[in-house]
Amino acid sequence: MKQLSLIDDDRPDDRPDDERARSATVEPAPVAPELAALAAALPLGLRLGTSSWSFPGWAGLVYAAGAPKQSLSREGLRAYSAHPLLRTVGVDSGFYAPLDRRRLAGYASQVPEDFRFLVKAPALVTDRFRRDGRGRGPSENPAFMDPETAIAAAAAPFVEGLGDGAGVLLFQFPPLGRAITDAPRRFAEDLYRFLRRLPKGPVYAVELRDPELLTPDLAAALRHGGALPGLAAHPRLPFVARQRDLFAGSADGAAPQGPLVVRWLLRRNRGYAEARDRYAPFDRLSEPDSETRAAIAEMVGEALAGGREVFVIVNNKAEGSSPLTLAELARALTKGRRGAAAGPRS
User: Fold this and answer.
1) Is 200 exposed, middle or buried (0-12, 13-18, 19+ CB in 10 A)?
2) Residue 113 domain-assigned?
3) In a domain, 10, yes or no
4) Rg, the chain, Cα only
5) I need a labelling partner for 67 at 20 to 30 A (CA). Which of 25, 241, 252, 263 fits?
6) Among candidates 117, 29, 119, which has minimal Cα distance to 76?
């Protein structure tokens, strides 16, 4: 396995286009009747989506053949959200630079009313270091876990730009270094104080890359701070089912509250750059991962049975093509849910 980068999320293709690039209409791909029926059998509380959306290799899967690459990031969401399986999307570009209200409103204008966004807050807030172009952190970041910066650069644009389409605002913390991982309780306390100073209303989730920080103290900090755990299938972390068990409930036995948020990012035997090079152009399931799929299907089924909303975001680097991974996950879920009380979409 190639070494993971410090940030370990390669920059997505939903970054802003060159302003000089000409927009062109992006049409949705035809949907096979079997896939349409599969989507109709899924419960309304389940939201499946991909990490970013502007991949030319999805021609025939999400976009009609011939969709211009330079238009996908700007105009592709309309076609993306027409796909019956895709009811959410991960806006990963927010991690690399804050997204303003106007850009987010432009995204919201392209999708149906019942579509929801999962937006990454900028690393400006979640990274302890100011990193250079190679991902190295030469200096401390003064805005790290600063509530005022988080509100101005993330929470306010999220609410104002997306309106009813605001689903989850995700604070993804990259590897934070020994000074923090050696003191997990202190980090949990600092995180709690940070979360308590954010405005009420938005759904916040927190996702980490340091397994040392996944502690009962962290679970308590999230619960009392008003945020959700973001579960991530990623080689730096324990298997996703073990993460689920850590956050399964409070000390008094109360069931988890709020949506289940799961991101299936990367196989356990690959690095991001390695997976990208192996799987591009992301038009087939290059390396199916049945173990992770079964675990995610199980936890999704449990959450839906408990009346919780569910967000599942899949990266192309999980198996090779996130739309195809989602179709397989949907098949697993509908097979396991036949006759379940939650019922299909109306």
Assistant:
1) exposed
2) yes
3) no
4) 19
5) 263
6) 29
